[in-house]
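Weekly puzzle thread! Below is a chain. First person to post its structure in token form gets bragging rights.
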Amino acid sequence: MIPSSTLTDFSRREVVIPSAEQWVLRSRAERRIYRIMVARPAGEPPPGGYPVIYLLDGNSVFATMVEALRLQCRRPDQTGVLPAIVVGIGYETNGPYATERFYDLTPLPSMEYRKRSDDDPVPEQGGAKAFLQFIEEELKPQIESEFPVDRRRQALFGHSLGGLFALYALLSKPESFQYYIAGSPSLHWNQEYMLELERDFVAKSKERPIHARVLLGVGELEKTHVCRNCDRARALTDRLTAIPEDIGVKAEYKEFENEGHVSVLPILVSRALRFALHPDHPEGV
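Winning reply:
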């Protein structure tokens, strides 16, 4: 134990994440407020700029991803993880989640799911199109104006409803990112609409190649949940894998042993880093 006389020699300060900053950004179209968190690697960037990971629900796992990346990117030849910029998209709350996420991360209001597990009404939904537009037309340009970014290596990471949004972005505007990580995606939400998007995605991919890698990761303990999202995620992976290779879509399904819906997050973050930032991946996927 440190003697009390020694403690008085030091001032107590908040713990901060090295090379990270945050600011508030209001969207132009809907005037919605977001807390943007950004961490960049130390040292000089590569000639083409850094890869970027855009992280949904930034309040929940921004620090986890930044620290995992900071530890692993020091030796890319051994860890398979390149240095990258992490951009967390969160909300003005000190909690891990905000009710606003229901609107931003869902394509349509759900006709089936009107109440949460605690029997409270589900918050407003159906703003995914506007949220993706905000990311593409407002957030990305600002990040690219302030940081050295490699546009050929951009990833989107989302979990639960964030995983649903990541798949919505893939199916509706696949050129937005080159890597999509959908953790425990809430595929029981907007089922018919997502299947319709998927059919359009497959049809359009036959006309124009789509270069994207997709990781769907779930916890093994989620398999018994009534929503059956593990089965849905595996089936979607199979359908994406069935698309001819020359179109450029590469999908992977991963179950993490003895992990549940929330506990899967740290291990999924680590797998996502190797998935999106491996030095051997060709530019542009």
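Puzzle host: Confirmed. Bonus trivia for everyone else. The chain has a mean pLDDT of 91.
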